[in-house]
Amino acid sequence: MKVTVFEKTEPTLEEAQLLVEGYVEKIALENGDVLLVNEEGRLENLDLNFEASKLVGIPIVGNAVVIKNKIVKNW
């Protein structure tokens, strides 16, 4: 499982869906960054994403996307 970080431009919805391999769920992080994950990841029994889980303190499954707070506009 991987975490893709966007620091210069935001991904489009379509790009985010491709990266998380499904419907996108948004999780706001305490530092202002946004974490995007697969909304149905648990239903699909995706593997645990240790790196993404550490960012939010709860289990996250599947690939994830981080959008840095300095570029967040449409999420």
pLDDT < 50 stretches: none
H/E series, N to C?
EHEEHE
Coarse morphology:
globular
Q: What share of the residues does DSSP label as strand, in percent?
A: 15-25%
Task: Indicate the structural class.
Answer: alpha+beta
Task: Report mean pLDDT, rounded to a whole number.
Answer: 96
Our Rg estimate from Cα atoms comes to 11 Å
How much helicity do the residues have?
10-25%
Strand order of the largest sheet: 1-4-3-2
Quaternary structure state of the chains depicted: single chain
Please give the largest β-sheet. 4 strands, mixed
Question: How would you sum up this structure, described in words?
Answer:
By secondary structure, this protein is α+β, with helices and mostly antiparallel strands. Strand 2 and strand 3 form a beta hairpin. The longest helix has 8 residues. The model has no long low-confidence stretch (mean pLDDT 96).
Short overview:
The protein is of the alpha+beta class and 75 residues long. It is built from 2 helices and 4 strands.
Topology overview:
Blueprint: E1 3-6, H1 13-20, E2 24-28, E3 34-38, H2 50-56, E4 64-67
Parallel strand pairs: 1-4
Antiparallel strand pairs: 2-3, 3-4
Which labels suit this protein?
4 strands; 75 residues
